[in-house]
Amino acid sequence: MAYVITQACCNDASCVSACPVNCIHPTPEEREFAQTEMLHIDPETCIDCGACVDACPVDAIFPEDKLLGSLTRYRDINAEYYTTNPMPTGWIPLTPATPPRRDLGTLRVAVVGAGPAACYAAGELLERSDVEVEMFEKLPTPWGLVRAGVAPDHPGTKEVTRMFEWSLDRPNFEFHLNVEVGKHVTHDELLENHHAVIYAVGASSDRRLGIPGEDLPGVHAATEFVAWYNGHPDYAERTFDLSAKRAVIVGNGNVALDVARILTMNVEELERTDIADHALAALRRSNIEEVVLLGRRGPAQAAYSNPEFLALGDLENVDLVIDDADLALDPASATLLDDPATAMKVRLAREFAQRAPRPGHKRIVFRYLTSPIEVTGTGKAEALRYGRNELVVDESGALSARARGDEGSLDTSLVLRSIGYRGNPVGGVAFDDKRGVIPNEHGRVTDRVYVTGWIKRGPSGVIGTNKACAKETVSSLLADFEAGKLLGTVGTRKDVKKLVERRQPEQIGFAGWRAIDKAETSRAAGSARPRVKMTDKAEMVTVARRRKRLFAR
To answer: Which three-class secondary structure state does DSSP give residue 401?
Structure first.
């Protein structure tokens, strides 16, 4: 019997180093790691020790005889990976790293952001006893997109925050929540008080469609909708028109699938999650019966991952609708089927296409090879015109979508664009506006300035991808420290505390966050919900300041 990695895999590779026989791949050192949807256990090599289960931060690994329902597919998904990616030979077990120098004094590092990339970077740094880390986050709460981006019906994915809390709960770490860099403290002030600064600010902007009518009321970024239903305080007052029977999502990545699922799933299921109360109330009144996802390319190039696509087929009282005609592959796409993940993507689409729609069920409709042309309406969105595409190989040999000429229209009052994120400039730091990232080399930007996460590499990968990304950045930073490049006199923790308290007296520390966390979980007592989120910043500050002494370390 072997162990099997399933849908919840976060790719942080904690299981890789725990495995005594090197049977989990791709590893962070392998080229495929940056693009993989999930990690895989080789059933022929696994010795059934269970070490990976204990190491997994999101409870994604099970014995194969304990898999139920659609999770049984992951037995084949894990095994199929090794048909085209055979086990490497010549494996050398991990060896201890060279001990660090201890004659350089205490390294002080500021980390800007409190999402997964920031937490993984801080955790790497805190493995050393000669490092102090101070984390600055503009929201009153930590964990970034794990709290404000992961769908509420994916509670297992959010379990990674337990690991973050444990790794950061150390005397040489300090939270400065509700403190915005650029407003309350400047980039230069961070450098005055720290030997190095790591920016882990993510990619918070969305990409626009560039079509007429995009600014009509009723057209929104999917990122705004996600932040709204997840209780992000900056989006809690937003409203979305759920009065029509159809919503249209432009894009078919995992965020698009999350939104489609939230719009169609039974509200009774959402009542057992940490979805924001205001979103739950709005979804109870929703008239939406159909969500249409438009993807400009074919099923072989769809942006969603197989685990998320497979899980969509398990929704109660929701049908997936796919036109058989959209599944005919052009010669260039057919060659992609040599890749097991792509082959699975097409195979799942064909399986879903064979399912007969059932009366009374809501529908999620996938339209491949389709691009938006215009949003129309008088004073608000009322319909979306679209065009059909064909895939062609351009002069460079790349596959691209070309308009075919035929058009159609979909009546809708809600259009959500979900075609990607991009980063925003950081004051005092160079920025690549075309790519939406901070230019860097292995995480190193300039002297004493570093970057990790989406603002470093662009919006790619999943939560755990940030672990290898942060490790690379921290390695660059520590190499500079060991080489004597980060030495010099800087301010102390007391200096930073005085500065922040003067500029932002409503800052929240670790104890304050724990007070908020306990208040949210206490509000859910007696229900099936894990927590009832606060969405008002003033309330969070009040709770943190009133109760933080009870949880002071």
So the answer is: strand
CA distance 47 to 36: 24
Question: What is the tens place of the pLDDT at every residue in 424-465?
Answer: 999 889 999 999 999 999 999 999 999 999 999 999 888 989
84 — pLDDT class (breaks 50, 70, 90) = confident
CA dist., res. 163 & res. 119, Å (int): 9
Instruction: Round to whole Å and give the CA distance between 530 and 245.
Output: 31
Task: Report percent pLDDT > 90 for the chain.
Answer: 75
Triad 296, 297, 302: Cα angle to 5° = 110
**What is the sign, positive or negative, of the torsion defined by CA atoms of 424, 182, 188, 476?**
negative
- CB contact set of 196 (below 8 Å; sequence gap of 6+): 107, 108, 109, 110, 448, 449, 450, 477, 480, 481, 486
Count, residues in the chain: 553
CB 399 within 8 A of CB 392: yes
Sign of the alpha-carbon torsion through 110, 111, 112, 114: negative
Decide if 372 contacts 117 (C-beta within 8 A): no
User: For residue 262, is pLDDT > 70?
Assistant: yes
CA angle at 414 for the pair 282 and 37, rounded to the nearest 5°: 90
Q: Give the residue from 489, 420, 424 showing the smallest Cα distance to 451.
A: 424
Q: What CA–CA distances, in Å, run from 258 to 72, 188, 308? A: 22, 39, 8
β partners of residue 290: 246, 363
Q: Which of 209, 103, 192, 115 is CA-nearest to residue 482?
A: 103
Q: How far apart are CA 456 and CA 443, in angstroms?
A: 7
**Identity at 392, one-letter amino acid code:** V
DSSP letter assigned to residue 507: -
Q: How far apart are CA 76 and CA 104, in angstroms?
A: 51
Cα 406 to chain centroid distance, Å, stands at 36
Q: How far apart are CA 402 and CA 392, in angstroms?
A: 7
pTM recorded for the entire structure:
0.90
Return d(Cα 469, Cα 442) in angstroms, integer.
9
- Site of tokens 């008080």: 193
Is the bond preceding 26 in cis, omega lying within 30 degrees of 0? yes
**What is the average pLDDT score of the chain?**
92
The Cα–Cα gap between 77 and 344 comes to 8
Angle at 254 (CA atoms; ends 537, 473), nearest 5 degrees? 70
Nearest to 216 by CA among 379, 372, 373: 379
Question: What pLDDT score was predicted for residue 439?
Answer: 97
Using CA atoms, how far residue 442 sits from 225, 378, 453, in Å, is: 33, 50, 11
Confidence of residue 255 (pLDDT cuts 50, 70, 90): very high
The pairing of strands 219-221 and 414-417 is parallel
Angle (nearest 5°) at CA 408 between 406 and 411: 170
CA end-to-end distance (rounded Å), the chain = 44
356: tokens are 């007969």
